[in-house]
Specification:
Structural class: alpha/beta
Shape: globular
Number of domains: 2
CATH topology of the largest domain: Rossmann fold
Bound molecules: ribose-5-phosphate
CATH architecture of the largest domain: 3-Layer(aba) Sandwich
Helix content: 25-40%
Number of helices: 8
């Protein structure tokens, strides 16, 4: 493995530290502070950047705007110090839900976020489970998207004959189909509608039976928790005996954690692409780390 450096922004340092550990390295020295008016100030303290291959890990989690600016400042500083190749490792690409104009006049925010990242000088992006294929054409630099299917499937465990994968909505259909094929379980699909103004979610139908089954709902994001909660209520009424909700990115906005805890879901399994504070953890929640995935991707790029 060739020489490289790994920096972490402030949004998910526990994950940055785990990735460094997997790679047998220490995180490189950086000082990230805020001026009294909250503007971000980045100072690369590592002395030897010139001509090095560098990875910067930063999730664009809450507050996404601040974490994005921080990432861009790190990229710009590294490029000014003449780093040879800088890869942004963005486990959760914030703003990725805004990948199209849902109503005339709405910003396609994800597209501009990618432009910011490119303008900062990054040469490549590694990310995890993108929200949709719409995002790929926004990138003009190479983007490596890692899948969490294997990681999450491994958490579901035995009882295989009784498992049915559930796709929670039309948007996630191809993702859930791939997951079901990968995990070798049958799949049923829910129909979901979401009110664009209120965000309210309604499950309107299902194309198969879940009676007496362990259902594994597979989604990319838990944001407000509405999809998870409404679909679990629906599946319970359809006779599902045990409900597992798998999701790569635990945004857990507002009181989503408390609502999930009260819902008919038996287990919620997510990854650490987003740092989850203690107050958002609950007895139903299991967090698996994507650190080995990210470390393997870095090893492949660097070899
Ligand atoms: C929808 O397209 C996504 O795949 C997720 O289902 C959605 O973002 C989850 O959001 P919430 O938790 O607010 O229902």
């Amino acid at each position: 493995m060739k020489d490289f450096l790994l920096f972490s922004g402030t949004s998910n340092r526990p994950l940055g530290t785990l990735v460094a550990k997997q790679l047998g390295k220490k995180l490189s020295d950086i000082d990230i502070t805020r001026f009294i008016d909250n503007e971000c100030r980045v100072w690369i303290k590592e002395p030897d950047i010139d001509d090095r291959h560098i990875f910067v890990i930063q999730s664009l989690s809450q507050i996404a705007d601040q974490n994005l600016v921080e990432l861009c400042l790190i990229g710009q500083a590294l490029k000014t110090l003449k780093a040879r190749h800088v890869t942004a490792v963005i486990p959760w690409l914030g703003y990725s839900k805004q990948d199209k104009e849902f109503r005339k006049g709405e910003a396609v925010s994800a597209q501009l976020v990618v432009k910011f990242i490119e303008a900062a000088g990054f040469d490549q992006v590694i990310t995890v489970e993108l929200h949709s294929e719409n995002l790929i054409p926004f990138f003009h630099i190479p983007v490596l998207e890692l899948s969490t299917h294997e990681l999450l499937t491994g958490c579901v465990g035995g009882n295989n004959g009784h498992i049915v994968v559930v796709s929670p909505d039309q948007g996630g259909l191809s993702r859930s189909d791939r997951f079901a094929a990968f995990s070798k379980h049958p799949i049923v699909h829910l129909s979901k509608i979401r009110d664009v103004k209120t965000g309210e979610v309604t499950i309107t139908g299902i194309d198969g039976s879940v009676k007496g089954k362990t259902v594994v709902i597979f989604d990319d994001i838990i944001n407000t928790g509405a999809t998870a909660i409404r679909s679990s209520e629906f599946l319970k009424k359809q006779g599902a005996s045990f409900i597992i909700f798998l999701s790569t990115h635990a945004v857990l906005a507002g009181d989503a954690s408390q609502q999930l805890q009260k819902s008919p879901i038996d287990r919620v399994i997510v990854t650490d692409t987003i740092a989850i504070p203690k107050q958002k953890r609950s007895s139903k929640l299991t967090i698996v780390s994507v650190a080995p995935l990210l470390a393997d991707a870095i090893k492949i790029i660097i070899q």
